[in-house]
Design brief:
Elements: H1 6-15, E1 19-23, H2 42-50, H3 61-66, H4 69-78, H5 87-97, E2 101-106, H6 112-116, E3 121-123, E4 126-133, E5 139-141, H7 142-150, E6 167-171, H8 180-189, E7 195-199, H9 211-214
Length: about 220
């Protein structure tokens, strides 16, 4: 059943052996990563600057292919390298270090799980960790395109003919399918899970919104 008090949570976690943690944007706000949807958030800033049809166009693969500049203006604000993990990230890592973390399903794209050293993770919406060329599919690390993103340019693939291929960070956009990892892990993990912890997420976005209902 659901546990509502801090004491309940401590009691549950002290006995749980196979914890699934679902984490969302809320756990990274104290790291200084701007909230997408707040009144003065990144969405609003980019939407006003580029006159987007709606904020979600920022993550629409068809809009991106036609005009990638708004997305890269957004990416500059949350690009990995300057942000440090929060207590929440360290808590998830501590669960893992004690052999109690079955999996961390994160909705975040900021790579702070990797910085913290969390290995048993599924990045449900992809992340900035790598970028792939839309034309030739070559993959590069986030460090390789950092200079272009910092200077507000669209990163291009050096191996493509005429260098025309855009290097798009490996974040799942609207209009793109989720990686196979989510389905594969969730089917294996949920029957073994003895505690589900949701932190920093309103659980409104699929696929993680469906996780509680999938518990046996």
């Amino acid at each position: 059943g659901a546990h509502s008090t801090l004491d309940d949570a401590v009691r549950l976690l002290s006995t749980a052996r196979s914890v699934v943690v679902v984490s969302g944007a809320g756990i990274s706000v104290s790291a200084g990563i701007p909230d997408f949807r707040s009144a003065n958030g990144v969405y609003q800033m980019v939407e006003e600057r580029f006159n987007l049809p709606d904020p979600q166009a920022l993550f629409d693969i068809h809009y991106f292919a036609n005009d990638p500049l708004p997305f890269f203006a957004f990416a500059k604000n949350i690009y990995p390298g300057v942000f440090q993990p929060t207590r929440c990230h360290r808590f998830i890592r501590a669960l893992e270090a004690r052999g109690r973390l079955l999996r961390n399903y994160t909705q975040n794209i900021d790579t702070l799980e990797k910085v913290t050293g969390i290995r048993r993770k599924v990045t449900c919406h992809g992340s900035f960790e790598t970028a792939s060329c839309l034309a030739c599919k070559r993959t590069v690390s986030c460090d390789e395109i950092r200079p272009q993103i910092a200077s507000g340019e669209v990163p291009r693939c050096g191996q493509c003919e005429h260098h025309l291929g855009i290097l798009k960070p490996d974040i799942v956009f609207f209009g793109e399918s989720l990686g196979e990892g989510f389905e594969r892990h969730i089917q294996r993990d949920l029957p073994r899970c003895d505690a589900l912890v949701v932190v920093g997420s309103s659980m409104r976005v699929q696929p993680v919104a469906a996780i509680p209902a999938m518990l046996p």
